[in-house]
Amino acid sequence: RNSTQPISWKMKHCLLMAALLVSFTVTRAQINIRPYAAVGYGLENQIGFRGMTLQGELAFGFTDHIEGIVHMNYFFSNNVPKWDKSMNEGAYYHQVTSAIKALYHTREDGNGLLLSGGLAFRSGKTNHFLTGDLHDGVFTNNRYITDELRGKGLVAGIGYGFNITSSLNARVEINHYAFTALNDMQTLTLKIGF
């Protein structure tokens, strides 16, 4: 094999993964890092979608009361409760939101009252009812619109953390995501930290 050939993309990915694992191990030894998995309920404000939200999170403990948080939230729905069945037909909302925030907790073990704030970035897509012909209080000939969701904004949260066992931690949190474009949303999640 010629030594001047470029490294294949598979080899680059393997080297990157190895570097990430080594840096994670070294960082974890110096900073308290705890992963969280969450499930919850999401509310989108502009159109009115309601649905499930899934979240993964890494909490980096910098001091006894402050953590840095990196999380990714996936919100999905095919239901706007204020609409009837025909208006909800074919409707959907999918949004992935990543966030970087600081979290303050009142107890030294990462529990107690939780207050957080930071930056959020979102990407997604929605297909929803736009208009139709109204006859005797029922829409027919419905027309839908598909929108791409992009934006950045702020996230703020409040919650409460507690221990389940000596190695498992739980948090109940409400987060509000305010974006520069419309479609602000709130999530209520139960998080389990390992």
Write a brief structural summary.
The chain is mainly beta.
Distance between the termini: 46 Å
Order of strands, main sheet, comes to 1-2-3-4-5-6-7-8
Strand content: over 45%
Major β-sheet profile = 8 strands, antiparallel, barrel
Helix and strand content put the structural class at mainly beta
Mean pLDDT comes to: 86
Low-confidence stretches: none
- The value of Rg in angstroms is 21 Å
Number of helices: 2
What pattern of helices and strands is seen along the backbone? HEEEHEEEEE
- Please bin the fraction of helical residues: 10-25%
The backbone outline, from C-alpha atoms, is globular
> How many strands?
8
Write up this protein.
The chain is mainly β and 194 residues long. It has an eight-stranded antiparallel beta barrel. A hairpin with a 5-residue loop joins strand 7 and strand 8. The radius of gyration is 21 Å and the shape is globular. The protein starts with 8 loop residues before the first helix and ends with a strand. The mean pLDDT is 86.
Task: Describe how the helices and strands are arranged.
Elements: H1 9-30, E1 32-44, E2 50-61, E3 66-77, H2 85-88, E4 92-105, E5 112-135, E6 138-163, E7 169-179, E8 185-193
Antiparallel strand pairs: 1-2, 1-8, 2-3, 3-4, 4-5, 5-6, 6-7, 7-8
Quick tags:
62% strand; 194 residues; single chain; mainly beta; 8-stranded antiparallel β-barrel
